[in-house]
Every structure is written in C-alpha cells, then in structure tokens.
Amino acid sequence: MRARRLRREEKVPAIVYGAGKDPSAITLNIHEITHLLEKDGAFTSVLDLAIDKKTESVIIKDLQRHPAKNCITHVDLLRINMKQTITTNIPLNFIGEDDNEAMRLGAILNQFINTVEVSCLPADMPNGIDVDISGLEIGDHISLTGLSLPEGVILTALTHDDIEAHDQSVVAVQEPKLMAEEIEEEIVETEGEEGEEGEDSAEDDEKEQGGDSDSEKS
Predict the structure, then answer these.
(1) Regarding predicted confidence, which is higher, 196 or 23?
(2) Is residue 166 within 8 Å of 158, Cβ to Cβ?
C-alpha cells in the first residue's frame, strides 16, 4: 500500500547510511532521480542531499528496478566524508576503436571487464577511466597495471602484496574467430584434395604396372 501511495505522489523510497551514523529512510522525487541517472557519472558523482534541514554529501551506491516495468523502486545512498577515502566501482571508457588499424582490418576487441574498484578521496573520484586501444595490434592486451589512473586514484586489486596474481586482463585485440575457422577449413580441404590426388596417382600406377605385367605374359 505504501509503495502505491508513493508512486501516486511520484516518489521513490531510499535509504541513507554510512559515515558512522544511523540509517535514515527518506523519499526522493522520481523525476529528479530519473533525470540524474540519465547523466554520465551518476554513480560516481558526489551529491548534496538535504535531510532535516541539513546537507549531507552522498553517492548513489545501488538502486533497484521493477523487473517488468524497469521503473526505480528503491535507492541506496552512501554518506561520505570528503576527507576520508572511499571505495567504489568506476566504469571503463574504451576509446580509440575507430583509429585502431587491426580492427579496421577485421580484428575483434574483447572487453573482459567494464568496471574497476578504486579507492580515493571523494573529490578525486573520476566519472570514468579511459582505456586507449587505438595502438593495439592483434595479440596485444591491456591489463590493470597498464591503466592510466588520475592522480590520487588507486586500484584496490593492486594493493595486495602479490600484484602479479591480481593483475587481470582488461581488454585484448584478437584475430577474428570466423577468419581463423575459414583458414583451418581451407587447410583441411587442401589436405583432403592432396590425399585424394595421391590415392588417384597410386591407383594409376597400379593400373600401369598391371598393364605391363599382362604385356609381358603375352
């Protein structure tokens, strides 16, 4: 019943938590939150939220949508302290695809991950991290250690003692699978034709030898 009432009032329920304070249940204007989510970097932007005549800095941590209607049903907001580091996921922006010569010739770009977890101060939090793939050739890849990070931003995966064990591939340029399969099929067909030619030659030799034997007998 409460959910229906909120929908009629064009509001959506939300929870504000974190920063060592008790969680607060609030409501947001559905049009304002929808408009905000249409902007780039909505999940990585610090928002000023007015609660009980006080302004708090928050970021959108999570949201739920209706499985059928896709409308927003709930929003999770995380309180932040501008002087303390936070950990959050940042999207990767793959750029330079139009300038990649290998891809113009048919190579395939495989993106293994689309976001990375970073740790930074709220003021240093980027909307995204650019990954330039313009110079990659077939067989080349970029791993986490190859990413160019803004100043003050740290990849949490690389804070472990064994960096190499946590350094995963981000993106790679690979040979087209279809092209490789076609080449393999051509090789198989060529080998088959050569085998058939060899068998035909052997049969012709046997016939010639048989004819010679008959001539000697006569």
Answers:
(1) 23
(2) yes
